[in-house]
Amino acid sequence: MAYKAIPTEPVKIDGVRDTYVGINPNTNGDDKIRAFIDAFKRVAEDASDDCYGLPVDLILAMWGGESGWSKNETQVNNQNWSNMSYVDSSYPVGNIGEGEDGWAAFPGRKTHGKAFSRFLKGDRYSKLTNYLKNTADPDSKKCARYIADAGYGGSNHDRYYKEVIDYLDSVRKRL
């Protein structure tokens, strides 16, 4: 392993045990992505299991892209790899309050992953969840299209979809 692992530390907040993930110490693009995958793959697998088999590579691509592969301080400080907005103390599920820039804050990667999978199981993403429930081997690109078209990345659905596909290609080269 030529790259450095992303630092992690156990945390306990309000009785919840989790793992806080720090800033990615790598500067090389390949090393950043590999370290990110190592730090988040197990949690992405759990989120996939919880969200009807949403492809792990897509989850890693979305979280990696949103967080700059764990290089962006806002996402690290909030432990919110997918930029879920803070609504209130009960939504998104598992948040510990409003973090920086109006995003929800989480204790660590596990609580974020659980909130992410629950978020995508909401009514807004019903086309995605219907597809996942009725497909034995879901296609990552098709899932990304459903997510983008539901407005996950804002009003420019095509732009967001293309960004996610670029991140997805980066993850696939390193899995």
Largest sheet: 2 strands, antiparallel
Strand content: 5-15%
- Rg over alpha carbons: 15 Å
Uncertain segments of ≥5 residues (pLDDT<50)?
none
Query: In which order are the strands of the major sheet placed?
Result: 1-2
Q: Roughly what percent helix?
A: 40-55%
Shape category: globular
- The whole-number mean of residue pLDDT values reads 96
Summarize this entry quickly:
This protein has 175 residues and is mainly alpha-helical.
Written overview of the protein:
This protein is mostly helical. The protein has 7 helices and 2 strands, in the order ββααααααα. A two-stranded antiparallel sheet has the order 1-2. A hairpin with a 2-residue loop joins strand 1 and strand 2. Helix 1 crosses helix 4 (109-120) and helix 6 (140-149) runs antiparallel to helix 7. It is globular.
